[in-house]
Structure formats: C-alpha cells, structure tokens
Amino acid sequence: MDQTLLVVADLAAISVLTFAVYFPRHHRRDLIAAFLGVNVGVLAVAMTLSSSSVGIGLGMGLFGVLSIIRLRSNEIAQHEIAYYFSALALGLLAGLPEEVNILSALLMALIVATMYVGDHPKLFGRYRQRSLRLDAAYTDEDALRAHLEVLLGGRVVNLSVQSVDMVNDMTLVDVRYVVTGEGSRAPQEAGHRVEQGQARGQGVRA
Fold first, then answer.
1. Higher confidence at residue 172 or residue 203?
2. What residues contact residue 149 under an 8 Å CB cut-off, 6+ apart?
3. Where are the alpha helices (DSSP H) in the chain?
4. Residues contacting residue 172 through CB under 8 Å, at least 6 positions apart
5. Residue 118 and residue 86: Cα distance in Å, rounded?
6. pTM to 2 decimal places
7. pLDDT tens digits for 43-93?
8. CB atoms closer than 10 angstroms to residue 81
9. Which residue(s) pair with 160 in the sheet?
10. How far apart are CA 19 and CA 28, in angstroms?
11. Measured at the alpha carbon of residue 55, what is the angle toward residues 53 and 56, in degrees to the nearest 5?
C-alpha cells in the first residue's frame, strides 16, 4: 500500500510538472510523451531495483548512460533538459523507497516548485538571446554593440562574435540583451539576414 501511494504521488507530480508547468509555457507536444515515458520508466525500474539483489549503483549508471544517449539524439533547449532530469528524479524518488516517507514527498514537491519558479516567464522576463547574421562585417565590437542595441531595442549585456566574413560582408553573432523599449524593429526593416537552424531568411532566432 505504501508503494502504491508513492506511485500515485509520482504520477500526480509528473502530471503537474508536464501539463500545468511545462506545456502551457512551451507548447512542445512531442516532449510530453518523453517526460511521461522517462518518469514512469524510471519509476518502474527503480522499484524493481529496490526489491532485487541488483545494485542500485549499477542501475543509476545505466540510467545515466541512457539519458545521455537520449539527450544527444536530438537538439533540445537547456530548460527542456531540466524538465527531463526533473522527470527522472521524480521517478527515482518514488521508486527507490520501500515505504512512504515525508522526505521523498517533500523532495518531489521541491522539484516541481523549483521548475515552476526557475522557468517562470516573469523571472528575468526582459532578457533575450538571439543569434543574428548581419549584412556587414564588424571588426569593432563597440560599433557592433551600438548597432545591435539600435536594431534590437535593448541594452546588450553580452555578445559573442561567431564569425566575420570579410569577403561576403557578413557577421554571425550571438547576443544577449535586456529589452528597454516596447520591442525591437523588425530585422526585415533593417535589412538583415538571420539564420534559424538550417533555414535562411528574414527573421530572428531566440
């Protein structure tokens, strides 16, 4: 009965994390199955390991290898990696104990609360990150910074020039900035090409 309560608590926690915290903010449908699958899979295997002679250290090592392989198979954002490991941790917390204890319940609540706060849209909500391909070759960082602040309508706090093409007159830069106005001018109006993944065209990648 105690383990049944832990399973129920785990399912409630992963449901809140996935359907109430993650999806309303990021709307990536394919990761719902991933989070639920990782969580329930870890829960099932952890409960099996806790009741067998197989060492928990070996099981944890296998989980680590599998999670690295899965995360390397497709490019996902850093906050989505955090959701992956939160789902994995919830499964372990519910699957390893043989009976209900207050510490496991508190830790599960802490994980969900941490992700709720840490990924909240209002937390540093004015900070942005973009990768831009500019129709000019900038070798002066101060001039580049000033141009980006006008283009993006914000204060640049960090920039990293990825490449400067003097032949084709282009600069690839990763910039992080704080929005100070109501928004930025459209890059189309400024006459810039921006690359998003493998697709090229007018636009900005966050």
1. 172
2. 155, 156, 177
3. 2-15, 23-26, 30-50, 56-73, 78-95, 102-118, 141-152, 187-190
4. 131, 132, 133, 134, 161, 162, 163, 164, 165, 195
5. 12
6. 0.58
7. 766 776 665 555 556 556 656 655 564 555 556 776 777 787 788 778 777
8. 12
9. 174
10. 11
11. 120
Written as one letter, the residue type at 164 is: V
**Identity of the amino acid at 83:** Y
3-class SS at 59?
A: helix
Q: Which two tokens stand for residue 192?
A: 């810039």
Give the tokens for residue 56. 């928990």
Amino acid at 143: A
- The tokens describing 151, both together, are 């283009």
Instruction: State the Cα torsion 120-79-37-54 to the nearest 10°.
Output: -120
Characterize 108-142 residue by residue with b for buried, 16 or more Cβ atoms within 10 angstroms of its Cβ, and e for exposed.
Answer: beebbeebeeebeeeeeeeebebbbbbeeebeeee
